[in-house]
């Protein structure tokens, strides 16, 4: 049955979870099952029943893992939240889901998550590991709307129950609430397992946050469904990453390009010799071919770029493992997911022609919560989901993303792909990071703006950048304005939001 209740083998002899430390916490699959069951009993005891939203405002940790799986077993809806949110952000998410309970770390019963929970009468509990017993504690602080509802029976999840609600990243507008069922999640888990041939011998380093589909599905649920090991380090740093990678014998990791770039920029932290890495996965933001090559060279591993979104319970396409071909600049082929490139009328376009990337598969959400308009716009009559991303597909199925439809730069009717410009700019020897975006223009409606972070000690002028671009791209794509910045604004998950970059660059300096 396609549920999280039977997605993890309790018989794998590998360690399920490793939390580095002295001593490290090592949890077997058998122990994980026992801990989840015990936590499910605690949730039932305080009144968590089917359909209740359990907001998990915990950092990446063993308690997060246990609380997440246990909530889903109880037929409740796990709703992970970034623990670093401000009160107003917590309020938005807690209100949007009518959360029954909010889980916070130990000692944070007076933090912003709790203030927000109180406003909407959600119960509050501290959730942490008791260091003496290794028990995951659920310490209820406020009963809120669960008051008097305790002692519920243990439930058995069904494939079409909603197991998880996450909001989209809000890149193109207000974040949308995406319900994902047990069937959606288990389908992605088996797709990812198959794409990378994950087995009990594999060990991954979890470097992405668990409050986003990337970390949750690719670095936690899929590895556990494969009987392998997940290493949960503390806050990310390049040197800690490599120390843990070597000490705990990791053999792959998945991350956004920002993380790969941080690792590339800190060669002093690279282990010598480099451990054997089976593959490195990159996803969630475009990986420029230049970084792809640098990564493969530095870490001596195949780099597999994948393409994913919240609505698809993460992965849709990926480059395949060797010996099959992996292509820099392409996000690979559909992995257990049907991919079609559609025109505006919903007709499939020819190979090599651009259109909207559209997908179908049992990993895809049934539709956004409370958003009829978005649901009507997003699904075609044949059940394909329109991703909002523009791209093309060749005759072998390889997909190339050329931009988000809402982010294409429309210069007097000519559509310009910002991703194409980013990749060209990245080839300039002084440039470390480049993000292109639309700026308002009196003559054309929109024109091209670019923000650049330069490499340490490098200098280049606006005119030199324009001259460089004139050599490489058609004249109408040459940026009208070039901005230099020390850091590129990014979301909490390290994603680039062109809208956010454009706003930051256009803001008059105080
Ligand atoms: P919103 O839908 O609220 O605007 P969002 O689309 O950024 O936010 P997510 O679901 O986190 O929210 O991100 C999915 C999007 O990320 C995809 O639609 C695509 O635009 C982008 N993306 C994912 N993987 C890649 C990749 N490998 N290369 C380029 N873009 C990618
Ligand atoms: Mg989106």
Mean pLDDT: 95
Give the low-confidence spans: none
Distance between the termini: 59 Å
Radius of gyration: 23 Å
Listed once per kind, the bound small molecules are:
adenosine-5'-triphosphate, magnesium ion
Largest sheet: 9 strands, mixed
Estimated share of beta-strand residues: 25-35%
Shape: globular
Count every helix, treating DSSP H or I runs of 4 or more residues as helices.
13
Spatial arrangement of strands, main beta sheet: 2-1-11-10-12-13-14-15-16
Write down how many β-strands occur, each being a DSSP E stretch of 2 or more residues. Answer: 25
**What structural class do the secondary elements suggest?**
alpha/beta
Helix content: 25-40%
Task: Present the secondary structure layout.
Layout: E1 15-19, E2 25-28, H1 29-45, E3 53-56, H2 62-73, E4 77-80, H3 87-97, E5 101-104, H4 112-119, E6 123-129, E7 136-142, E8 162-167, E9 177-181, H5 182-195, E10 203-205, H6 213-225, E11 229-231, H7 238-247, E12 252-255, H8 257-265, E13 279-282, H9 289-299, E14 303-309, E15 314-318, E16 333-334, E17 338-342, E18 355-360, H10 372-378, E19 385-393, E20 399-404, E21 409-411, E22 414-416, H11 418-425, E23 431-441, E24 445-454, H12 462-472, E25 481-484, H13 498-506
Parallel strand pairs: 1-11, 3-4, 3-5, 5-6, 10-11, 10-12, 12-13, 13-14, 24-25
Antiparallel strand pairs: 1-2, 6-7, 8-9, 14-15, 15-16, 17-18, 18-19, 19-20, 21-22, 23-24
Helix pairs in contact: 1-2, 3-4, 5-6, 8-9
This protein binds adenosine-5'-triphosphate and magnesium ion.
The site of magnesium ion has 3 residues, from loops.
């Amino acid at each position: 049955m396609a549920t999280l209740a039977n997605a993890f083998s309790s018989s794998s002899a590998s360690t399920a979870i490793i939390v580095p430390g002295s001593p490290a916490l090592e949890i077997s699959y058998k122990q994980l099952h026992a801990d989840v069951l015990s936590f499910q009993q605690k949730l039932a005891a305080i009144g968590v029943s089917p359909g209740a939203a359990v907001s998990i405002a915990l950092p990446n940790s063993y308690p997060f893992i246990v609380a997440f799986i246990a909530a889903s077993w109880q037929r409740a809806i796990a709703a992970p939240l970034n623990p670093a949110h401000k009160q107003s952000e917590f309020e938005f998410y807690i209100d949007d889901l009518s959360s029954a309970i909010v889980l916070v770390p130990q000692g944070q019963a007076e933090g912003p998550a709790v203030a927000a929970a109180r406003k909407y009468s959600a119960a509050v509990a501290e959730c942490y590991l008791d260091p003496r017993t290794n028990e995951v504690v659920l310490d209820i602080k406020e009963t809120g709307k669960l008051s008097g509802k305790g002692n519920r029976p243990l439930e058995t999840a069904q494939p079409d129950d909603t197991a998880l609600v996450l909001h989209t990243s809000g890149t193109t507008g207000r974040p949308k609430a995406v319900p994902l069922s047990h069937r959606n999640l288990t389908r992605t888990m088996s797709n990812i397992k198959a794409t990378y041939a994950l087995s009990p011998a594999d060990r991954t380093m979890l470097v992405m946050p668990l409050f986003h589909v990337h970390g949750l599905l690719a670095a936690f649920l899929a590895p556990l469904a494969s009987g392998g090991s997940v290493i949960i380090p503390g806050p990310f740093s390049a040197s800690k990453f490599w120390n843990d990678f070597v000490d705990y014998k990791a053999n792959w990791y998945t991350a956004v390009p920002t993380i790969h770039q941080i690792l590339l920029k800190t060669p002093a932290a690279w282990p010598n010799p480099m451990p054997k890495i089976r593959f490195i996965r990159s996803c969630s933001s475009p990986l420029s071919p230049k970084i792809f090559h640098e990564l493969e060279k530095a870490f001596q591993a195949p780099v597999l770029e994948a393409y994913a979104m919240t609505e698809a319970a993460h992965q849709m396409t990926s480059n395949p493992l060797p010996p099959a071909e992996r292509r820099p600049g392409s996000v690979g082929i559909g992995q257990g997911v049907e991919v079609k490139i559609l025109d505006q009328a919903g007709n499939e376009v020819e190979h090599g022609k651009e259109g909207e990337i559209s997908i179908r598969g049992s990993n895809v959400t049934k539709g956004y919560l409370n958003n009829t308009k978005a649901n009507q716009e997003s699904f075609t009559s044949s059940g394909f989901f329109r991703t909002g991303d523009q791209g093309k597909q060749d005759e072998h199925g390889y997909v190339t993303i050329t931009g988000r439809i809402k982010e294409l730069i429309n210069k007097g009717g000519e559509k310009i792909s910002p991703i194409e410009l980013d990749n060209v700019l990245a080839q300039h020897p002084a440039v470390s990071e480049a993000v292109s975006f639309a700026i308002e223009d009196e003559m054309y409606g929109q024109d091209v703006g670019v923000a650049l972070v330069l490499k340490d000690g490098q200098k280049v002028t606006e005119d030199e950048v324009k001259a460089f671009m004139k050599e490489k791209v058609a004249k109408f794509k040459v940026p009208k304005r070039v901005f230099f910045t020390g850091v590129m604004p990014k979301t909490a998950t390290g994603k680039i939001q062109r809208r956010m970059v454009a706003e930051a660059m256009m803001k008059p300096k105080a």
